[in-house]
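During the reporting period the student researcher (J.K.) took over the structure-prediction task from the postdoctoral fellow and processed the backlog of single-chain submissions. One of the processed entries is reproduced below for the supervisory committee.
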Amino acid sequence: MRDSALSLGASRPTSRDVRQNANLLGDLLIEAIGYLEGEEAAGLVSKARKAAAHESEEGEAPGLDHLFEGLSNDQAVFLARAFASHSLLANIGEDVAGRRRHAEADARPGDERARTLVDAVAALKASGKTDADLAKVFAAMNVVPVLTAHPTEVRRRSMVDRETEISRLMTLRRHHLPADLEADIRERLFREIALMWRTRLYRPERITVKDEIRNALSIVRTSILPALVDLYEEWSGKIGSHGHIAPLLKMGSWLGGDRDGHPGVNGDTLKLALSSQSRVILDWYAGEVRKLWSNLAVSTAYTPVSEELLALAAQAKDPSVHRLDEPYRLALELIFDRLTAVSQKLTGQWVAYATSRTDVEPYAHPDAFVADLQIIVESLEASGGERLVGASLRTLVAVAKACGFHLMSLDLRQNADVHERTIHELYQRAGTGVRYLELDEEARSKLLIEELSHQRPLVSPFTAYGEETAKELATMQAAAQAVRDYGHACIGAYIISKSATLSDILEPLVLLKQVGLVWGGAAPRSSLKIAPLFETIEDLENGPRVLRQWLELPISRTILGDRPVQEIMLGYSDSNKDGGYVASRRGVARGASALAFEADRMGVGIQLFHGRGGSVGRGGGPAAEAVLAQPAGTVQGRIRMTEQGEMIARRFGDQPTARRNLDGLAAAVVQSSQRDVNRPDPKVESAMTALAQASFEGYRALVYDDPAFEDFFWSATPIGEIVGLNIGSRPASRTASRKIEDLRAIPWVFSWSQARFMLPGWYGFASGVERAGLSTAQLQDLAGDFDFFASLLSNMELALAQSHMGIAARYVALSPDQANAQRIFETIKREHDKAAEIALAIRGGSSLLDNQPDLAESVALAGHSVDPLNHLQLELLARRRGGEQAEDVRLAIQLTVAGIAAGLRNTG
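J.K. obtained the following structure tokens:
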């Protein structure tokens, strides 16, 4: 048997399951390459793999480099495909083994953290909570993962689908099967891998917003929605009050609504997103209603029914005489027809299972649909008790309450600078003489408050506006129409990027007033939630002051409504790029606590929206653990969190994984919300404040104060090449400049990851410790007494373990200014090594991640595929930057980027 060039060596610290899965998939990939491309091609991969096995700790692999230097461009593309494919397959093998480990862990008793909402509720009951207490907990809950479409997902949807099928087959293979079935599964795996090899890994053209919507909805349709249905079915039966459960978990999205710096997002994409989402959920409703119709052939000859049900059934247009005494079926027929009418109105298409056009009135809003279902529930309960209702009907009601006709609430996001310019033009075109951009903050706020105090519009249909203003107004008009069509819940929040002042909150209210989403007057009201986004370290510090100014305004109370809850978004990404890992995380945590305190003092609830990414530097990590690490008093049963890029496929790519993550998130919110708010230990606060400030200074000294750093970043990472890749619809930078402050946080993190620095996940920590004069004993006390710091250390250690300073040094060698490049790199490497030393000293470890063997195994497995891809990418970058502009070189670079991103399992 030919030795697999891509199988793991025995020296790798992998578990039996992971090793077996990787060996099998690696063997099948080599077999497929040999079958399709010939033994010579398979031999080239084997030769490269064996050379990579001799890489030193310093990243030196002379045999591999010699081989790559002699490759033709075609051969470089071929090897890039092979290594990138192996990265994807290795991930599948690890995930299959991981799901098995998770299942075993969930079955073990004694875990102090509830892994499911049912467990969390059981713990509350054990602590003395009554059913009335639990009802209050559920009524206050609002848990919303929000899917976003930043340029981080480099895989095509077709590849994700192929990987899903391979994963399914590998899962089947885990069970004890007869030899013939085992052979059949192996052959099917071979076919899928062979087809994967013949499938393009990359996108030939830049992805569009429409593509992003379609890709995300594919995962929603196949895994997230089924997981949500399963959870509501379980919750209705196990923790609901008489089978009823509040809509405590919902999904949100930015796809089609996030226009901050994105020229392709407008009113049309908003309409497309909601229409596409609506089609998914309406089809599901239709299928469930048809199932109920089949099951509820209940005759009035044998059971009494409510008057309300008879009235509902009387509206049906079913000509069959055989169903005249079956009011449940007649009512469900009417409901189905009205859903069909809703679909025709909102999407222009029939729902699934519809056989003819209906002329009944569509539901005006989702509540009317729920009300009709509730009539059926109550009639069944009255005639036979709760047990006759059935899980499917209760689940349908629960999902309808959570999803409405829109499936996921769509946020609108825009930059405060755009609002300022738009307001300025409206005043100019209205002939008021107001030059808004020239006003100071106090004058702006006074003017905007006055504008909200009356109903006079600033906009005229007879006035021509500039392109930017016209686009803003058109998008808001589309949002107003969406609210009329789908109901208020279809828009999750209006998010204001770059919020820093009170006027930043008031400006979108004035703009929304122009389209009828805000009503002016003495007591103005709003159909939408307004959510300022505090992103930089400075803005996070000033956020509580801005919130206080807003809540002190009488108009804030009427705008927030009868049960006032103010939503505020916290930015992990830009704050990290602004001030580094420690200062960013500390700024977010302190800001969250201060905002919650300020809101409570003003008698208002708070809902925090955490703008996290997939990488450690952007707040990444398991969502449930992130919730549990939030400061006490900041969750309050309500939380929203972004799920970005490749993390969507990883966390929600299949139904069991989606269910586990959603359930765990809901459980964590319950647990975190029950913690008492205690006055922070002054010593802990003092130490963390000193560390954050010192780390901020150390980070800024490198990134913003060193005049050579900007050129270093652009030459020692593949940022220039990444900007040109088709990995997202959004531009990589807000402007055409090369300044670090203008670059978006995602490509910033992506570039450091590709070059194996992982700098945003740890830089500034070690210099901060030294500048603050903190001893190991003090840091150990801090980690033992402060969950936040322990979580910060754990995530930082992962970033340190994923980095590879030896390979990073090879990227530094690409810089034309070697004197400055080597000087800066020595600073970075010294910080890296010292950070690792301090992290290990705090927990008494001997090597990174030695206290988390599964995670260490995952990092080692990734390195096995990623390291040779880095060496190949380095060779290709040298060719490209040396003047070779062949399309094959660009293509090969793109493949290495995809492979490295897949292997590291986070891009930005």
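The committee noted the following: Confidence is low (pLDDT under 50) at residues 1-14.
J.K. will present the remaining backlog at the next meeting.
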